[in-house]
């Protein structure tokens, strides 16, 4: 696992949720998490990481069709929207950094969480399920809502994440796996 450190003299640093700081240039595109000096492991997500890092292709397509974004810069539902939901839910446990002016890093946005990458994966799935339940509740179809809720009683987020991560082989060298 990578262990970024603050490079000497780099004023472009990021303060982490734990209070430690790192240089934004130390976060590379293949990084999903790192062991911090605080003793914890922090998840790292970049705007260039596809949402399929967390969710199956078919679900990402459904979300893209169903969710209208208001951003001209990001008109299609993508990773920044997922992390925006996480940031909204856990504002003190997620740090976002806009690196659009820093051409050296290879990403425009980065999020570092107080959670490790597996726990962040679970949180993303839990929040998407809540989003879906909210959407179904607005459909004015009590049968659909009841059916959805019945399905979700059987849905085990932890088991889903285990299976999905094994299927996607998140330990592979490919940063987009």
From TrEMBL:
It comes from Halorubrum pallidum. This is DUF5815 family protein. InterPro entries: DUF5815. It comes from the Archaea.
